[in-house]
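A reminder before we start the practical. When you read a complex entry, don't treat the lines as separate problems. The point of joint prediction is that each chain is placed relative to the others, so the output describes one connected object in space. Small molecules and nucleic acid strands, if listed, are placed in the same frame. In the example below there are six entries. Take a minute to note the order of the lines before looking further.
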Amino acid sequence: MAKNDKQELIVDAALEVFCEKGFANTRMGDIAKKAGVSYGLVYHYFESKEVFFDHIVERWWKTLYDMLEAEKSSSAGFEGKLERIIRFFLDTYASKFNLLSIFITEVSRSSLYRTDAGLARFRKFFSLCDEIMAEGQKRGILRSDVAPHYLTYIFLGAIEAFISIMVLGKEKITKQREQRTINGIIQVFLHGAMAQNGHGGTRSKT
Amino acid sequence: MAKNDKQELIVDAALEVFCEKGFANTRMGDIAKKAGVSYGLVYHYFESKEVFFDHIVERWWKTLYDMLEAEKSSSAGFEGKLERIIRFFLDTYASKFNLLSIFITEVSRSSLYRTDAGLARFRKFFSLCDEIMAEGQKRGILRSDVAPHYLTYIFLGAIEAFISIMVLGKEKITKQREQRTINGIIQVFLHGAMAQNGHGGTRSKT
Amino acid sequence: MAKNDKQELIVDAALEVFCEKGFANTRMGDIAKKAGVSYGLVYHYFESKEVFFDHIVERWWKTLYDMLEAEKSSSAGFEGKLERIIRFFLDTYASKFNLLSIFITEVSRSSLYRTDAGLARFRKFFSLCDEIMAEGQKRGILRSDVAPHYLTYIFLGAIEAFISIMVLGKEKITKQREQRTINGIIQVFLHGAMAQNGHGGTRSKT
Amino acid sequence: MAKNDKQELIVDAALEVFCEKGFANTRMGDIAKKAGVSYGLVYHYFESKEVFFDHIVERWWKTLYDMLEAEKSSSAGFEGKLERIIRFFLDTYASKFNLLSIFITEVSRSSLYRTDAGLARFRKFFSLCDEIMAEGQKRGILRSDVAPHYLTYIFLGAIEAFISIMVLGKEKITKQREQRTINGIIQVFLHGAMAQNGHGGTRSKT
DNA sequence: CATGAATGAGGGTTCATTCAT
DNA sequence: CATGAATGAACCCTCATTCAT
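Here is the predicted structure of the whole assembly.
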């Protein structure tokens, strides 16, 4: 446990530093200093800077996949799935800002991740969402004249844009704002941005 | 003219190398070599690697702003504006892949750009789009129960997600695919992803 | 102790190289090679070439100040004080040639030291000597119709000229020559260069 | 004449820049800019930075030698010779500060000048003064129990110390101060720093 | 004479990584 | 486990110098 304590200490420090300075500008020494451990101990646990970073990112991808898998398998209502996906990101923003910030600024489209492995991670993320969209189509909830991955791009793109702006501006999030954001995205995603289509105003004022 | 030739040569080489390797992994020597000029000449034109990169990025931001300003001021139909915005990105993808790739992977959310100046660039980009959306609301085309910047996030987020996937996968784009993408985004953005709302299938099969 | 060993090794090597080539023509690699350590170790102990040099120079100034402070506070005879000051420089010349050579050629009047801080160092050096001269005046030993700092300039100027010539010519110094030099400076400084003033020949033949 | 104009313009600019930044920190471009000429023109007149600097320094040495030769050959009174030597430096300080500053900080003891040629320049300077001192001894004015070069060191050392302090502090010089300085140096040099030796107060209050 | 674009060797500095203690 | 001294390859940048125009 003492072992894991130190290791966790280092990981937490890394999250902070990677978030604050970015991968390229983070020194292994910065992490050690922030964690309050010696220089070499970081190398005791992680063989290299890159492996260390991958370790962190990998954990995040897994969390993301797990969440999406859960929604996919779930028998819950479709709109609820969308809501939970959005809420997942917003909750993570509130509780693990560093992690989400790293994901947005260093991973999601970084040139660091323009390898086959990186592309694969990314595609799996979108694929899982595709399947949820396809299921929505099969259930007759979503229109079928648009390919499911188009729906995915629009839905995830919207979420990412929101999160990105929040991350870059280090904005605060409140429960109220969270709900407004969820409603806004779902409203427009499902019913469109056009006026007078008869459902826009019924749900909420965003 | 001979003067600008060399400088342009260097800029083109830089676009290629920055695109291929990313800012952090680009060596000034790589750029010089690719441009077929001496090491020092790069510094004759650009005082540092960072300034050089900024120069490139700044030109891009200006192009982007100009395009959005033009749409904002234009008296054209609203849907046409949306279409031209999307088309702008897709055309740039086709004609200046390197530039757009750099924008996506190194700029749009990069930690490099998490400065006040960087944030300002970003906000101006979103702001201009906000104004177009607000105008759509005033014209009665867009629903008014959603704040304009929400619409912006969804619209631009969708475009960026499309472009990102294309950039990461280095995908080819055809005229046909371009049109399908434009229609897809506009359809879902304006009319929503839901089935049986009566306008989805009329425009095109995507 | 092993720790200080390496550091001391590097400092000694630096003294040699700075002395031989001067600050501007000294390469950090030269120092490392001369010390028999790796390139990076120099930077482990000293953050930059300039800081390293300052560290060396600072130690020297301190030694100099300490010596002058000691003479100032001492209750010894005035002529003895002058003699010990001169002897201090000649002894340092014999035992730490490199250090004194660096002081003469790189510090004492170098443009490197034309900063406020550099000027302050210099003035403190002269100030301490001023006080000793002023004390000599108060004791009635030195003439009072000349400002003490004039006396300082002449006394220290003489020492520096001697040392400079020796440094530039890399001359050997013997005990005999040391004593002759001390006598020569003191004789002329105290009794003047004129003939037939009745005290020139009594002390020694220089 | 137009030719010499440009050349002189460049030399003057060089004096300013070398004085302000020192040899090592002066860029050929700085000189060109200060002179208001193009980069390459400096090279049209001076084949290299070092040759350029030598050219400047060489002119100074010649001026110095000429002055000392003139005093040596002159049949004027000995004390007048000393006075004119001191006055020469003080006048140069007033009229050609840059030149004298460069001499003090970059030449007189610089490691740049620790070559055989440099040492030779220096020795010739001292030698000429030696001869004047020897003549003073032969005339029976100066004491003969001290070797002439000792007298030289003390006399020139005093002058250099005065000038150095003035240069480092960029001090102003007035006619009055000039005379006081001359008297002070000559008084102490000739009659010594000791009190009650019967000639201190007769000349002036310094 | 005059310009300034072009060259490229060289130097200071960084920092991931290793390893003896 | 833990430390931090030690390594050295790599990279950005400088700037004296050349030369075509």
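Discuss with your neighbour: Residues 199-206 of chain D have pLDDT under 50 and may be disordered. What might explain this?
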